[in-house]
Fold:
Amino acid sequence: MPTVQHEVYINGPVEQVFAMVADADRAKEWSTNLVSIRRTSDGPGLGATTEAVMKIAGSEQRAKGRCTAYDPPSHIRLETAFEKGNKGRREIWLTPEGTGTRLRLEQEYSLPGGLFGKVLNAVVVERQVKSDIEESFSRLRALVESGRA
Structure:
């Protein structure tokens, strides 16, 4: 599965950053590819579930998510199953650093299409995924650092 990694420093307490990352109701405020999201269980927390519509590489896809690791305020893992059969895993680690937080992300995703999917990933998808992640975490950083988190 293709994997993308990203790190960002956010000038805000780790508890505040974790609360924003873990709260599905607020994810649309900072996530660039979320069209809509709805919690389908109580949450946040281990086992919490969501249904979402996400814009990925220009097309909207429905997805079901489940929190499979939840260790506030340092770690969260979300597993996602998309309607077209592809899957994803987003894992976030948060570490206090000075007066702020170091956020580290690892995201895995699958694409249908065998060799064609691999070529599409190399040419378009991976670049778009990286761009979406960078922009999303830039928006998250702005929310936290402005005091709106």
